[in-house]
Specification:
Layout (H helix, E strand, L loop, with lengths): L2 H5 L9 H21 L6 H8 L3 H7 L3 H26 L5 H17 L2 H10 L5 H7 L1 H13 L7 H22 L1 H6 L1 H13 L12
């Protein structure tokens, strides 16, 4: 593991209920400070004070504030991917466009609920590579592959198409959280993102390959 990754990793994983409650309190305090006052005010002392936790206990689990933010981001990412996976499972067999609308709405809602928190995730923590995210949740990506294959799309490479929509969709929503929050909350970003994705994911022509 690189030095940068070690600095952004928890010191240890809580095993007991009491230690899990301590870590949860630290993460909740961190989120509250970020939302209310921004990243510039965040310190480990302030996190510990807000959580009602001794600073020594904080350092038992995290080496610095950046590691706490990284863990907070990981948990939010887990929750969002679980929500997206639920949408895909519940909508198996339904149309591509309606499923994309539901996926985009789910992603937008997660970001619009706490824009300052996601601004920190976007601007203050290292970006996650597509391959890293895919390894975190293979079932989600398997569901997306099924969706694209069922739709009989005019794309030469399903894996590339999956990378395109995941990367483009994530970038649009993340940047809109920072640069166009009003359009994000009003639904305009979601509508335009769906148009963008549908324009890219064109179905095959009914006459393709029949000599017409």
């Amino acid at each position: 593991m690189s030095l940068a990754k070690r600095k952004l990793s928890p010191r240890k994983t809580p095993r007991q209920d009491r230690s899990r409650a301590t870590v949860d309190a630290l993460l909740e305090a961190t989120a509250d400070i970020l939302i209310r006052r921004g990243y510039g005010t965040l310190t480990t002392n302030r996190i510990a004070e807000r959580a009602g936790v001794n600073i020594a206990s904080l350092y038992q689990y995290f080496p610095n504030k950046e590691a706490i933010v990284a863990e907070l981001r990981r948990r939010h990412g887990d929750e969002q991917r679980a929500a997206l996976r639920t949408v895909l499972v519940e909508r198996r067999g339904r149309g591509l466009e309606s499923t994309l609308r539901a996926l985009v709405a789910t992603g937008v809602a997660a970001h619009a609920a706490a824009p300052e928190l996601h601004r920190v995730f976007t601007e203050e923590t290292p970006d996650l590579r597509y391959s890293d995210v895919e390894k975190m949740d293979p079932p989600l990506f398997d569901e997306m592959r099924r969706l694209l294959k069922r739709a009989n799309l005019d794309v030469p490479d399903v894996e590339l198409a999956l990378w395109m929509i995941s990367t483009a969709g994530g970038a649009v929503v993340h940047r809109a959280t920072i640069e166009r929050p009003d359009d994000l909350s009003s639904g305009r970003i979601a509508a335009e993102l769906v148009r963008l994705l549908i324009g890219y994911l064109r179905p095959k022509s009914r006459h393709a390959g029949d000599g017409c």
